[in-house]
Amino acid sequence: MQPPVSSASEGASRFTAYLGPVLLLTGMFFINFLSRIIFAPLLPTIEQDLGIGHGDAGSLFLLVSLGYFTTLLASGFISARILHRRTIILSAVCLSAALFFIAFSRGLWGIRLGLFVVGMAAGLYLPSGIASITALVSPRHWGKALAIHELAPNGSFVLAPLLAELLLQWLSWRNVVIALGAATLLSAAAFSRFGKGGDFPGKAPNSAAIKDLLVLSNFWVMVILFTLGLGATMGVYTMLPLYLVAEHGMDRSVANSLIGLSRILSIGMAFIAGWACDRLGAKRTLRTVFILTGLTTILLGLAPGRWLVLVIFVQPLVAVCFFPPAFATLSAIGPPSTRNIAVSLTIPAAFILGGGCIPLLIGMLGDSGRFPAGMMITGALVLTGALWAGLLKIQGEEKAV
């Protein structure tokens, strides 16, 4: 069954007619993403409250990534049975329940289970959210609609540490999680009452298309590149507050404020990266991004005092430039029938490795008194991305590179 086209045709003349529904979905995506990364600025407080080490703290993000991986792969089967709209609502309700469970859990294992479910619930949203927007809005307005939608993760990176620090002035970390769970539940109610779009089923992954994709060398290179790209962005971001507090003796409020402010300029860098990709080609842009990101990530482990503050601002500026050329490359590999499958397979695997294993590695090295080495090793791994990007075979760029 194909998605309805009536909404798209109606929105062809005026994008503003569907700005409200797009903003509502963007708000849901913002809360969805915030629920996954809010534990980064809360981590120093959680670690102190539970009496756990840096390795155990870092492992919490691996559990979120594992849960995200599980349902992102299965989301097509779920939305095929209950429609995209209900999948979006289900995601928010389950996410709220998981956050409440974490807040009331007294032991580490309960929190671990809750975070795994947080990842599972969050993973349901993205495929259905994107499908709902592209069915709701005319194709000639997709760029604007998806650009607005992408403000959610970028805004979350900025606001998560600032919001966490603000709320921690009056609330415990558990009450902060309860407040976020309540906001998530309200977003589900708002979308159920006022939301538009998504009243059609999803499409389950096709086994033949998956087989066609798995034999492509470009696919496996992109899995590695997304792993390194997510490791340099989300992997570093999740452990940076704990690193600054535990290793450099920075006050928690100063660390969270610094990290939040450092992400503001990063929002506009994605547009610059997109321009560079169009002018220089995706392959050359990726090589440059990995070299600069790798070096600045290494400097996170080397830079002293005031120089470290400068690096904290520079590293995310270059790291976020990875995504426009990476998604452009990912969309170009394989036949059209495999493109959506490429995204649904690449991103979950990269989230586990880059967003889960990298924080675990940094945390384990922190436990052994080598926190800076964790940042430097991550940076060295990211540097290899320049070599991996050279293995890509992108039509139209081979002669230029």
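^ that was protein a. below is b, sequence first then the tokens
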Amino acid sequence: MSTDTLDFPGLVAAIRQANDALAEQASRAVNVSLTLRNWFIGYYIAEFELQGANRANYGDRLLVELARALRGQAVSNCGRRQLYAYLAFYRAYPQIVRTASALSAPILARPRLEEKVRTLSAQSPVVPAADPETLIGRLSYSHFEQLVELADPLQRTFYETEALRGNWSVRELKRQIASQYFERCGLSTDKTTLARLAQAGAEPASRRDLIRDPYVFEFLGLQPREVMSEGQLEDALLDRLQDFLLELGHGFCFEARQKRLLIGGEHFFVDLVFYHRILKCHVLIELKNDAFKHEHLGQLNSYVGYYQKHEMAEGDQPPVGILLCTRKNEELVEYALAGMSNQLFVSRYQVQLPGKDEIAAFLHKAVAELGGEDECRTA
């Protein structure tokens, strides 16, 4: 943009353009670095496994021992399951070696990498694929996680191509795979129309999607709360709700905000987690700043079930979940129970936990107050 005749609107536009362009560049740079990191981890594991003598000392325990050692070194996202995924990523995308070699000046494996580049360059790919630099520049590691699960190279390349063409979000890629888009395309006689329809209704990726990726903020050492807030109103409500429950004096002990759970390879976040010292149980709270949907309660039940299976210690009672849905002048409170009957809940738990009417009244007041504050700020 020329600065020769820069008026005030032009000044605003120029700053906005520079901000957006460089923020986009920064987001993609972080994602490229994360993707390469995970690829290198898989590469190093594969190289180690080729050295039979060293591998024999660990056998099937290699990834378990490696995960334990890396945890001691504070290396994030390197559990046994994730290490296995990185190894699978490397094996599914060996061609990334070309980009990895070009960007690996600080990486100690460069001579070996360059040898692999020459080896791969002499091989003709069985399935035409996108340029590796394009792949890692435009797809996040979370995209690759979905693609690696596809065993058929042709199917994987099909979804790569479509994801790049449509700039698909990770959620859209998962949806298209689940809807068997590849199989439907193979059976369709009018593939062009099918592709146009698929792309027309697709959800595009955005910079916000990239930076909200759980792998990214752990890689950068950020806390979930710093990037997972869905809006100022919801965040402010959580602040007040947290204080409200602690001030009740019924035994609530704050434990976590935006607690990350890894369930079936996917990341989920519980808004608030308390431990109730009188009831001897975890209390999980989910706040939805919209009207009630059945999937909200199903989601909370999943969290409660996870805590019952993985987080209960000896002497703990089953966890309890509280779902809060709110719109102005409309509140809903529901409890999610893990392995408890309603009768048991009423007789034991509701004596100590705040009742539905009490929480609903708090929500109504908090939403009204925060709504008034927002109006004052915008006035």
